[in-house]
Structures are given as C-alpha cells and as structure tokens.
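Internal tracking record. Fields below are filled automatically when a chain is submitted to the structure queue. Please do not edit lines marked as system-generated. If the sequence contains nonstandard residues, flag them in the REMARKS field before resubmitting.
Queue: standard
Priority: normal
Entity type: single polypeptide chain
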Amino acid sequence: MHLPPAANGTGGRWSIVVLFLGAPLLFAGNMLGARWLAGTVPPMTLAAGRWLVAALLLLPVVWPWLRRHGLGAVPPARLLLLVLLGGVVTVAPQYGAASYTSAGNIALLAAMTPLLVAVIERIVWGVTLRPAMLAGIACAFCGIGVATFRGDLSALLRLEVNPGDALMLAAILGWSGYTALLRHRPVALPPMVLLWVVAAGGALCLAPLALLEWWQAGVPPLGAQAIWGMLFLGLVAGVGAYAAYGRAVSLLGAARASMSMYLVPAYALGLGALLLGEALHAYHAVAVALVLSGVAMGTLQPRRG
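SYSTEM-GENERATED OUTPUT FOLLOWS
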C-alpha cells in the first residue's frame, strides 16, 4: 500500500493501519451489539435509541456549524431521502434481522454493498458495468446463497430463506441506495453535520414506529442491558465507525478505504463465535471466500502501465 505524502512518517503510517483495521471492527461491533440485544429490545426501539444517542453525542460537535450556517441550500427532499435510506431503511431491518440470523451472516450480506451500489448506479444513472464487475456480482451472490441456505442444497431447492437474511438484504439495499445517492448527488455539508442530520432524522422517523411497537406489545422493560446496549451502538456504530471510516477515506481515498469493509465478515464471524457463542461451520468459510473473491473481482481494477 502506497501511503499519501502526509502519512509517510511512522506515526502517520501507524494511524492509517489503525484506521484501516479499526473501522471495520467498529462496524462489526454494530452487528454483535444487535445480536446481543436481540429479544431484549424491539428492533424499532433499538434503532430509534441508537440514533438518538448518536444525535445527542454529535450535537455539541456540529452545533457551531449549525448556528452559523444552518443546513445551507441543500434541497429538503434530498435530505429526507438520505434520512429514509441511511437512517431508517438501513438500520431498522438490520436490527430485526438480528433476532433470526447470526452476526456473521449479517456481515456477509453487508459485504455485498459495493456490488449492489454498482448495480444501482447502472439502473439509475446508466453507469457501465465492467465484465469483471458482472463476474464479481455472480461470485458474491453465490457466496451469499451458500450463507443464506446454510450450505444445504435441499434448502435451496425448497427456497427456505431465513427471515433474518431477507430483512438484512432490505437493509443493505437501503445502504447501497444511500451510498449511490451520495456519490451521484452529493450534499454541501461537512461529513459530521450530514451524519447528525441522518441520526436526528432517523430518530424522529423511527420514534412513531417504536411507539407502535410499544402499543402492540407493551412498553419493553428497558433495563441496564438495554440502556448500555443502546449507548454502545450509538457511540460505536452511530459515531465511532462513521468517524473512523471518514478519516480513512480522507487519508487513503474512497477506493482504498472501502477495501477495509471487506474485513467486517471476518471480524463478525470470529467475535460472534468468541463472545456470543455462535457456531462456525464449513459453509461460513466457503461463503466468505466466495463473497470476498467476488468483491475483489468487482472492485479491484488492474493497474495501467
């Protein structure tokens, strides 16, 4: 890896290594936290609580900008779409999925994001898909199929799909749409201000759904585990992961930094087995190999002479 000029010193080099390895670990922490709280906090309540914590933590950081500039001339409709995709569709189904499937499966599905972004760009903006991208999409989908059907061909033939995998697919479609929209219709806001908008907007949009959960099933007993869990998710997934990844992008560029996200499944599978007692199977290794091979084929471009 060739470091940018500002990072050629030993301290800069190590900071990049820490960010490159640490950002996906924080994203994997989100999936582990969701699995740890599954059955304790309803998904809409957990999603709204996570964003509320993140918005409150970010408010002192972004308040000076908001007081001086507000939200500028960013079209409200575009901000609302970003909030719905990045703050609601991405998060709520993911926490629902945690009740049905493992953190490793959630991470494997999330690893397909770069390829799904390419498909959305093709459909919406007409961006050409390279043959290598098509091959990568096919390979990664095979890996997701192995994980979804647990390596059981008979389950594939019967189309027995885990509800959690279906929910997670909806979540990563939302995140992929959010990523593609930001890439092709960027907003003139600092990254932390945009994150605060998504967090605050996500909490507001999810609050009525959380209240509906309470009306249908009763107010959940939010004990110490639930409170600490939401604080953990708000700090680690809502702020820490985004901040670390944003810094990595500023130092390495988006293409190189995005490669770090392919470490998320490995982290989630290993930590899920170590901390949550989730079983590791041979099909996990096959699925990881296929997904990472597909993503590598689809995103790595040969260096031109």
